[in-house]
């Protein structure tokens, strides 16, 4: 589903419809301006490897059973500014390698059991200004190789790197308010 409008809460996508696509590996909900929440039936798609929910400005929560997506490798939740929490079941995504929560400004915290993501290699959490403290469990993510963050969480990540993850790359996206382009 790309560039969708007028979907509201997507009651159209029920469990029966989800079961019609047992081998579906990718779903994109991009620029769904009316989407307030993902249907819980999406969690029946156990073959799903990639789920992208981007630029969905009204989405506030994800299905509680998201952890049932046992094949999920990539979860992109970028630019969902109303998303306030990740369900704890996200920590059961044993195959997850890439998590993008960038520009989710209302996200207040990460689940405490984040160390249960054994294959997570990359975490993009740039512009998550609502996140003040990172869970200590992040230091146990042995597969994590790269974090993209902003200046708000940089020091916490550098402390984690120094104490437990020397091979971690911490990329800091700096806010730039440069108006040099006006000279052109």
TrEMBL record:
Transmembrane residue ranges: none
Species assigned in the record: Picea sitchensis (Sitka spruce)
Superkingdom of the source species: Eukaryota
Gene3D superfamilies to which the protein is assigned, alphabetical: Ribonuclease Inhibitor
One Pfam family it belongs to: LRR_1
Protein name: Leucine rich repeat-like protein
